[in-house]
Amino acid sequence: MLQASLAGCKDGELWRRAVTIFVFMIAIIAFGVVAPSFGTLANIRAIELSSSVLLIASIGATFVILMGSIDLSIGAVASFCGMLVARLSPDLGLWSVPIGCLVGLVFGAINGLVYVYLRIPSILVTLGAATTISGAVLFISDGRSLSVSNPAVIEMAQGALATVVPNAVLISAVIYGAAVLVGDRTRFGRMTLAIGSDEQIAALMGVKVNTIKVQAFALSGLLAGLAGVLLAARLGSATVTMETGKLLQASARPVSISQSIRSKALPRPRCSARLRAIARRSGSEERGDQDGESVSRRDDDRRDDCRAQEFCLL
Fold first, then answer.
1. At residue 238, what are phi and psi to the nearest 5 degrees?
2. Are residues 202 and 142 part of one domain?
3. What is the pTM of this model?
4. Which helix (H) or strand (E) is 238 found in, with range?
């Protein structure tokens, strides 16, 4: 019964992917027929540059959404970091780029710490942070746009190792590949999914829930900062509202991505049932039982639980 259900899910997933690719190809052909300039190298390059910035910002937000939270400060953080690089690049050159990314990381870590330790919903924390950071952008820019005058910073985004593939696209591709490996092959990625599936069970499994949450928000801030830096370098200037239009897209796209990932990473039936049994047994143990036979049985159960945890985390 279960195997048949899983087979049906796989067939449905393959069908959805085939339909998506088909619709995508039809759209490309239609745009090429309606607008002959759509298929030109210049237009392909512009699409790649525009999408690469959004991809980087969305990757960071994906990990936050996977664990059941949301980060609405992406646009404000990106605007601040882009503006900061535009102001610092004449004096510091390329060194302004890591500074801008580190500032984004700090903003994200602060969001995570406030969310975790003050127990304020993430939507309120990040929305308040976005308002505050937007005010800081106005302060450091005096309400005007700043040009990025350093050629090395501009070349970082606008330059290209190949005619059709700009540097910004290569950077986003590398980050995407790293994010896939982190999500699939590292403890951080698995623990993020575990927290999003059931935070209580994740805590019973020994996951440092608060630490993972802060790390996810810090990663989101870091990648939002990098996205803002690349956007400023691509445009050649930084404006107060350059990332405002991308806020909804960068926050909404990971929602669909995370739903797809969660559907593929649902707990295995044995694992889920075993972990629920651990939770129930933990509650009964708190009431205490001094009977020797019960103590011996609990010891055996704990050994089984350890094996179950190893099974779930593989």
1. -120, 130
2. yes
3. 0.75
4. strand 237-238
